[in-house]
Specification:
- With 329 residues, the protein is an alpha+beta fold.
- The protein has 2 domains: 1-76; 145-323, Jelly Rolls (Sandwich), CATH 2.60.120.620.
- It is built from 9 helices and 16 strands.
- The chain has helices at residues 12-27, 31-43, 47-59, 67-79, 83-95, 103-114, 118-128, 162-172, 207-220, and strands at residues 145-148, 153-156, 177-178, 180-183, 186-189, 196-200, 230-235, 241-244, 254-261, 266-268, 271-273, 278-280, 287-291, 305-307, 310-313, 315-323.
- The strands form 4 sheets. An 8-stranded antiparallel beta sheet has the order 1-2-13-9-16-7-6-3, with helices on one face.
- A hairpin with a 4-residue loop joins strand 11 (271-273) and strand 12.
- It is globular.
Length: 329
């Protein structure tokens, strides 16, 4: 039975008690009761309750998913001083996911956070070394080297700095999981990719990662909103990605792929286009861009490719798959 709402405003002590009780209910699987108490504590301005309620709406846990409502609760939790809420709202403000975008304000907030948070300080340092305009877009890009016309394949050499590559590896390190593939709208373990992967999803897409994604958008002549979340892949010796295509024949089709090589101290692991007799061995900071769509607007079978087995060392790769139209909320 859901917990009935209190007929009066909670005191700070009562909101603390309500939130603690909510966590106990949640651990016991009593989600509806937990959410009822979290809502009451959030209404009283409890910082952790505001963040927890925002997370529930953001992910659709016990309530219908509503990113806009989740973002607003993250904002309120940030105002209340909840540390995760502070970082989450800065991230969302930088990217404009599920609401307005405020790049300059996000950078100001990041500078404040960097005073007491080493990782946020590193993000700020990475951004400050970039040549960006007021919107966070790259001021200039080098010309790519075209490796193939059919399929369309280009290589941007040294487009990302060592510091940027190392930062993405650091960001991904705590959250590697068995690589997944989307089947019928669901993420399931991939049977042809034996790597580990870490998705830098929308909520944790920090300002530095967002600036990297904007550069990838400029390189592919798309908007940043067309990109899927950046996905960092780790291939240890013996791991590989068997022949496959990145194309998704959905209403919003996946038309382009951008693969950024985050290191080069490994052997094997070449990217092979199996029907085009093309092998690519990128160096740290290089980005390989290729089309999954043919000149007639349909799927290009020549885009089939594979990641050959790594024979020694560990290969790190950041993948950004790009849709035909806006993909981000």
């Amino acid at each position: 039975m859901p917990v009935p709402p209190l007929p009066y405003a909670m005191t700070v002590q009562q909101s603390d008690q309500a939130f603690a009780q909510a966590m106990q209910f949640a651990q016991a699987g009593r989600l509806a009761e937990a959410l009822s108490l979290i809502e009451q504590a959030a209404e009283a301005g409890h910082p952790d309750a505001l963040f927890a309620l925002g997370d529930a709406w953001w992910r659709g846990i016990g309530v219908p998913q509503d990113l806009v409502r989740g973002r607003e609760l993250f904002r309120r939790s940030a105002v209340a001083g909840q540390p995760m809420g502070v970082r989450a709202y800065t991230n969302l403000l930088a990217s404009g996911i599920a609401g307005e975008r405020g790049w300059a304000e996000a950078l100001r907030r990041l500078a404040d956070e960097a005073r007491t948070d080493g990782l946020r300080a590193r993000m700020l340092a990475v951004i400050e070394a970039m040549e960006l305009d007021r919107n966070g877009d790259p001021i200039a890009l080098p010309d790519p080297e075209q490796l193939s016309e059919e399929p369309g394949v280009w290589l941007y050499r040294g487009i990302f700095s060592e510091a940027e590559c190392d930062f993405l590896r650091l960001l991904a390190e705590p959250t590697y999981e068995r690589s997944l593939v989307k089947i019928d709208g669901q993420d399931v373990p991939d049977t042809i990719r034996t790597s580990d992967g870490s998705a830098i999803h929308w909520l944790i897409e920090d300002p530095a990662t967002h600036a990297i994604n904007r550069r990838l958008a400029a390189m592919t002549r798309t908007t940043v909103e067309q990109g899927e979340p950046l996905y960092v892949l780790r291939y240890r010796p013996g791991q590989q990605y068997h022949p496959h295509v990145d194309w998704l024949d959905e209403p919003n089709r996946r038309i382009l792929s951008a693969l950024t090589y985050l290191n080069d101290d490994y052997a094997g692991g070449e990217t092979r286009f199996v029907k085009a007799d093309l092998d690519v061995r990128g160096h740290k900071g290089d980005t390989l861009v290729f089309r999954n769509i043919a000149s007639d607007g349909g799927f290009d079978p020549l885009s089939e490719h594979e990641g050959l087995p790594v024979t020694s060392g560990t290969k790190y790769l950041a993948s950004r798959w790009i849709r035909e139209r806006r993909h981000s909320p």
